[in-house]
Recover the amino acids of this structure.
């Protein structure tokens, strides 16, 4: 069960019926965005990363494990980038409704788990809200919202501390990963922009930051003329390959653990809810 046989949309309906009702049946739904990524990266950056890492992970997993991939959601929630041409954004209500409505249909087919595999940092919290709303409506299906870069071991060995903390968009990591995965889509510029205290970029007060424990609802035009937050100057395909390896190893282990367990025990939770 390799290649297209992992693709939900390339199966026939009897195959869907059989797989959905199998033990631990799981779908991974890649999420990205269609938004500016500086003058050197394509609008599809986040969606491309989500899809290609998901594909690489599926190729590493035992083909007998019950997991399939939905088509990638390419347009997401990106209002912070709409001052730059090319950015397309769904409203928050529309994205939540999309997840809930399609999720309800998938639950109705019998799927046991739905993993929202997201590579756009601007919709992490929104997809968590959508997941909770969907789970409330479909208590027999587990919903797991994930962020591509979250919790990945070994990134600090590859990226400088400043870039790990402040390289939020189209900086060293994303430029390098794109140089490895799709170099034909990368332009020649290597911007350094949007960093606190650099070229007039505002410095947050002590204890506050763009993202983290005390974040701010920033808009890109507040911080950057180029649409970049970070320093892409040292980006390379070699670094991108190393980053991809870390991502694939991390998520392969996470999905292996999930697919060989009965967690989350949603059926027992649903039974308790019905009994009460």
């Amino acid at each position: 069960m390799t290649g297209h046989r992992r693709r939900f949309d390339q199966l026939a309906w009897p195959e869907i019926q059989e797989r959905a009702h199998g033990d631990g049946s799981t779908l991974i739904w890649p999420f990205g965005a269609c938004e500016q990524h500086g003058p050197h990266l394509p609008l599809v950056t986040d969606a491309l990363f989500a899809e290609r890492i998901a594909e690489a992970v599926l190729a590493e997993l035992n083909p007998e494990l019950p997991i399939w991939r939905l088509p990638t959601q390419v347009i997401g929630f990106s209002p912070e980038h709409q001052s730059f041409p090319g950015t397309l954004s769904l409203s928050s209500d529309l994205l939540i409704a999309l997840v809930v409505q399609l999720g309800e249909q998938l639950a109705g087919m019998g799927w046991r788990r739905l993993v929202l595999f997201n590579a756009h940092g601007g919709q992490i919290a929104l997809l968590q809200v959508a997941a909770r709303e969907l789970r409330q409506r479909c208590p027999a299906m587990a919903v797991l919202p994930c962020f591509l870069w979250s919790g990945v071991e070994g990134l600090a060995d590859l990226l400088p501390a400043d870039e790990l903390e402040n390289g939020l968009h189209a900086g060293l990591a994303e430029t390098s990963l794109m140089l490895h995965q799709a170099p034909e889509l990368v332009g020649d510029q290597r911007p350094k922009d949007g960093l606190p205290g650099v070229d007039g970029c505002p410095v947050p007060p002590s204890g506050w930051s763009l993202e983290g424990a005390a974040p701010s609802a920033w808009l890109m035009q507040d911080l950057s003329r180029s649409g970049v937050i970070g320093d892409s100057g040292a980006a390379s395909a070699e670094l991108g390959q190393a980053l991809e390896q870390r991502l694939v190893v991390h998520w392969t282990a996470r999905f292996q653990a999930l697919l060989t367990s009965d967690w989350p025990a949603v059926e027992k939770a649903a039974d308790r809810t019905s009994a009460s």
The CA atoms of residues 163 and 218 lie 18 Å apart. The chain has ten helices and six strands. The longest strand covers residues 26-31.
